[in-house]
Design a protein that fits this description.
This protein has helices at about 10-20, 30-40, 80-90, 110; strands spanning about 1-5, 40-45, 50-60, 65-70, 100. By secondary structure, the protein is α+β, with helices and mostly antiparallel strands. The longest helix has 10 residues, at about 10-20.
C-alpha cells in the first residue's frame, strides 16, 4: 500500500460512491465534495492502481486541524488502512502545533488509540448547520 497527498490522484468517482454511502456525508453533492477536496489536505491510500482509502484534514497548518472523511473501501476494512492514514496525518510536521478535532458516531476506539478523547468541554463547543441564504436578486 502507498499513501499519496496528491489531490489530482484521487479517484473521485470512487470517493463520490463511498461518501454517498457514509452516514455523515450521504447528502453531499459531487460539487460540494470537489470543493472540499480543493480546500483541504487530502490523503489517499493505494494498492497498485486501486484507491483503497481516503482521509481529509481541514486545517490552517498552525492551530487547528479537523480530521474528517476517513473512509476505507468496504472490502478492505480491518486491514490497517485507516490506521495507516491517520498515523501519516498525525505525524506531519506542518501539523505539529495544531489542536486536532474530529467527529464520529462509531469509531471512538480507533481514534482513542491516537490520543483522541471525548470532549469534556461540552459547554464550550458549538456547531451551526448549513448556511442557507436566500438567493440574491
Amino acid at each position: 500500500m502507498t499513501l499519496s497527498f496528491e489531490t489530482t490522484r484521487i479517484d473521485r468517482s470512487r470517493l463520490y460512491a463511498w461518501l454517498g454511502d457514509a452516514y455523515w456525508s450521504a447528502t453531499r453533492s459531487t460539487e460540494i465534495i470537489d470543493r472540499s477536496l480543493e480546500n483541504s489536505l487530502c490523503l489517499s491510500a493505494w494498492d497498485g492502481d486501486e484507491m483503497v482509502g481516503f482521509a481529509r484534514v481541514v486545517t490552517d497548518f498552525a492551530s487547528f486541524a479537523w480530521l474528517c472523511d476517513v473512509i476505507v473501501a468496504p472490502d478492505r476494512r480491518g486491514q490497517g488502512i485507516g490506521k495507516a492514514m491517520v498515523s501519516a496525518l498525525l505525524e506531519r510536521e506542518d501539523l505539529a502545533t495544531a489542536r486536532w478535532m474530529l467527529g464520529t458516531r462509531d469509531a471512538h476506539s480507533l481514534y482513542e488509540q491516537y490520543g483522541f478523547e471525548t470532549s469534556t468541554e461540552t459547554d464550550r463547543w458549538m456547531t451551526k448547520g448549513f448556511n442557507v441564504r436566500p438567493p440574491k436578486p
